[in-house]
Amino acid sequence: MDWKFLEGLLSGVNKYSTVFGRIWLSVVFVFRVMVYVVAAERVWSDDQAHFDCNTLQPGCKNICYDYFFPISHIRLWALQLIFVTCPSFMVVLHVSYREERERKYQAKHGADRHLYDNPGQKHGGLWYTYLISLLLKTAFEITFLYLLHSIYDSFKLPRKVQCDVSPCPNLVDCYISRPTEKTIFTYFMVGASVLCVVLNICEIFYLITIRLVTLKKRGLVHTSSIMKVRRNLD
């Protein structure tokens, strides 16, 4: 997978993000993408080859591996990273749409006329797009954490599993390669995912708070203007 392509796309999101969004982006690249590319892929590279079972029955080893590992941790994390980063592109696309409208507006009315004060400013429809992207990222993170835990019953990998699935002749003991190291990486990736969820929730509350404060100020200004007009009429 070409993670540099993903990095280039997300770099454009950074300039439209809040401080929580920038921290989230740093966590994604430093503690998730970098760890995934540099270390995690290598740890799971020999996963099936070193999955040993105490039987020579043809097909038993492969069937047991597929039974206990229907999807590899590494592939599940790759899907998770793709899903949690895709909603950020909604913001980039919305800003691009605004910039294109701004360009057409200036071409029609002159370069000194502006449709938006700042196309990247989070107000109006862009504010809702940004909020929806945060909600989607949070939902994807929680969903994949649930899937990881439900598929393997725990975030901890056991040293030994027992399998009696056909064509195994009886109850077979199978041994996972480097279970302690894989458990450490699993807890690390889960912790980074939980941190991203916390940052997303903080950013959601931050956006809503700023929105409410802005609306309150506008309401006070509007009320003040009405009172001033009434005093002039009196």
Instruction: Report low-confidence residues grouped into runs of 5 or more.
Output: 229-234
* DSSP helix fraction: over 70%
Q: How is the biggest beta sheet arranged? A: 3 strands, antiparallel
Alpha plus pi helix count: 7
Structural class: mainly alpha
Oligomerization status of the protein chains? single chain
Q: Which shape, going by the Cα principal axes?
A: elongated
Strand order of the largest sheet: 1-3-2
The fraction of residues assigned to DSSP E strands is under 5%
N-to-C series of helices and strands: HHEHHHHEEH
Total beta-strand segments: 3
Distance between the termini: 72 Å
The radius of gyration over CA amounts to 26 Å
Q: Quote the average pLDDT.
A: 81
Protein model, in words:
With 234 residues, the chain is mostly helical. The protein is built from seven helices and three strands; from the N terminus they run H-H-E-H-H-H-H-E-E-H. It has helices spanning 3-14, 19-43, 60-68, 73-85, 88-109, 125-152, 179-233, and strands at 52-53, 160-163, 172-175. It has a three-stranded antiparallel sheet with strand order 1-3-2, covered by helices on one side. A hairpin with an 8-residue loop joins strand 2 (160-163) and strand 3 (172-175). The longest helix is centred in the last third of the chain and has 55 residues, at 179-233. The protein starts with a helix and ends with a helix. Residues 229-234 have low confidence and may be disordered. It is found in: Cell junction, Gap junction; Cell membrane. Keywords: Cell junction, Cell membrane, Gap junction, Membrane, Transmembrane, Transmembrane helix. InterPro entries: Connexin, Connexin_CCC, Connexin_CS, Connexin_N, Connexin_N_sf. It holds the Pfam family Connexin.
